[in-house]
Amino acid sequence: MIVIGITGTLGAGKGTIVEYLSDNYNFTHYSVREYLINEIKERNLEVNRDSMTMVANELRAKHSPSFIVDQLYKQAIKENKNCIIESIRTPGEVNSLKAKSHFYLFAVDADPKIRYQRIKMRKSSTDNIDFETFILNEKREMSTTDENKQNLGKCIQMADYKFNNDEDITTLNHAIDKIIHQILSHEQH
To answer: What is the pLDDT of residues 106-150, one digit of tens each?
Structure first.
């Protein structure tokens, strides 16, 4: 069983990578976002980026920095299929998953203006913001000294494979194919 974690900046293409791996390599998808949305709804809160950040930080502070991804990993183990855990946001999550075998962390990034246009097109309730708020949200999530809070910058540094997604989807897909073939070849030896 191969586990791929995905981290990256807002709107960089994490979901695009998930979709490609699911459709072309039969990976099962486990989403931190969906996990948090379910938790937010149970608490009768509004589903938005602030609620997601607050709930995630509370769960990590109460249980452990890797609590959410550990819960998703437990679900994945039960299914025993190649899987993707999206979206890794804290170094504690990376460390927990890297301690398990057959884990690879992918990071994706792109130019901020391109990413902002992408989030506007997807029309998610958590993405209905102006460019300045987009940049401020990202800045807040890029670095912190609190291990329970988002630190995308550190997670990206810890990645095994990094993708720049400034080009078209075909270019990204070719890059993914190349890395997946390397991983599959490595796993067979």
So the answer is: 999 999 999 999 888 877 666 678 899 888 888 877 877 776 678
3-state secondary structure the chain: CCEEEEEECCCCCHHHHHHHHHHHHCCEEEEHHHHHHHHHHHCCCCCCHHHHHHHHHHHHHHCCCCHHHHHHHHHHHHHCCCEEEECCCCHHHHHHHHCCCCEEEEEEECCHHHHHHHHHHHCCHHHCCCHHHHHHHHHHHHCCCCCCCCCHHHHHHHCCEEEECCCCHHHHHHHHHHHHHHHHHHHHC
Mean pLDDT for back-to-back runs of 10 residues, the chain (189 residues)? 93 94 96 94 91 90 92 91 92 92 94 91 73 85 74 93 95 97 87
CA angle 161, 10, 89 (to 5 degrees): 60
**What structural domains and CATH numbers belong to the chain?**
3-177 (3.40.50.300)
This prediction has a pTM of: 0.88
Round to whole Å and give the CA distance between 65 and 187.
Answer: 28
